[in-house]
Design brief:
The chain has 307 residues and is an alpha/beta fold. It contains 10 helices and 8 strands. 34% of the residues lie in helices and 15% in strands.
Length: 307
Amino acid sequence: IELGEIETTLEQHPDVTTAIVTRRDDNNTPRLIAYVTGRDGRTPTPEALREHAAAILPSYMVPAVVMVLDRFPLGGTGKIDRAALPAPDGRRPDLGVDYVAPGTEHERLVATVFAIVLGIDRVGVHDSFFDLGGTSLQSAAVATGIDEAADVVVPVSQIHRTPTPHALAAWLATAPRRTGTTPAAGQGRQRPGPVPLAQQVAKCLMSPLEVVVPVSWWVEGDLDLRALMAALGDVHRRHEALHARYRRVEPPVALVPANPGMPQLLLLTDAATTQDALDQLADAVQQPLDYTQGRNWRTAIIRDRST
């Protein structure tokens, strides 16, 4: 990608004096970040500049984030100090549409996954993933995140067809669940092996609810969902016992998939009281796990609004 070509395109906008474009790797995902200064006291909107760039450049060259600065930081030689350019602040960009909070479970799920992948603080139900700066590469991460959290196979093309939480949630509500289906061709071979701690696993297969062990943490302050998802995924991939698919045979056998995916994530409704939070968590614990499909553990997140 020619960063200079993107800068020239942005500087062709009548409200822009100077543009600098950099490439950043956030959460192992490369993104183009543009910094501009306004012309003659005018302040261009990031959305207008992204639309301007999209009308001229191919989609992969449109900056994911546009930051409008009063002035560029200068180094000792008087030149622009690129290393001193500010990092994106993680706030929802101005899209020209009002923010509308998610209202349903599926909308909250989609909005949360969008926010985690894009590294922003919130996503409204009518916010387009691509208007927020999402790329085709990141849409694959969204599909994977929703797939694992909702137990639905989400084609990447579906993100393009229904790019807002409202539209994608409507599709999710009627999409067939993955549980009980066989793996699709090309997902990689599964290698059978002896089940670790076979007696305990056999007990799990006989009575799933009996051996569910809930562990809870109360987190005060801001929760970094991106870091949490990364940590959960790392634990899930690291321990075969957590993602193996167990078979009720004698002796028990585990099928270890080549691609473990992500652990199941439940996003519960915000709680008005601490007791409401505890009740919702108790209900989540009662939902059985499915060891035959590799659903051996899950994480539930709930926000206690009373504190």
